[in-house]
Amino acid sequence: MIDQLVQRHPGLVFHVITADPVELSTHSLPQRHIELALGALPAAPPANVAAEVLFEDRQVVMAGIDSPLVHRRKLTLADLIDEHWVLPPPGSAPRRYIDEAFVAHGFSPPAAHVATFSMPLCHQLLATGRYLAVLPREAIRQAKHLPVRPLKLDFPAIPRSIGIMTLKKRMLSPFARLFINCARGTVGRRW
What we know:
alpha/beta; D-Maltodextrin-Binding Protein, domain 2; 25% strand
């Protein structure tokens, strides 16, 4: 979307922040550090935040193509507990969902060897073949050019609503409205 908008409007400048969706909705938007947030929506956005769902996603376990786990036909969560994991930071909403999925199936959550929200860092570590990560299904499409693949695993579906958050009763800039319309159009073509 950024590339589409910059091609049409070369003067646009984007300031992108990678953060926990709850942090964005409870601090960054209300304090007006950002005008909008695009990504996973918190289960219960604050009353002063408008949330528009663009599409529904779910989580999958990913590994690098050099990982021996990629070629295994039948994996269980028990097979993966002691692996090296790249996970969202402790206490974040995405991490809680992942931890709850493991606990719901009778397992302790895996220990994170790396805790980050950085998707590029996650992709780079996965590509080594030595790490695993729980990522949105949409990440598979985004990472097609990278040597990473989803594992053949019956992983409990962790639903994620992906959308846009804005502050209620705040007039959006023309740029923000342009970005939101582009997001809606991009999602409409893809889903």
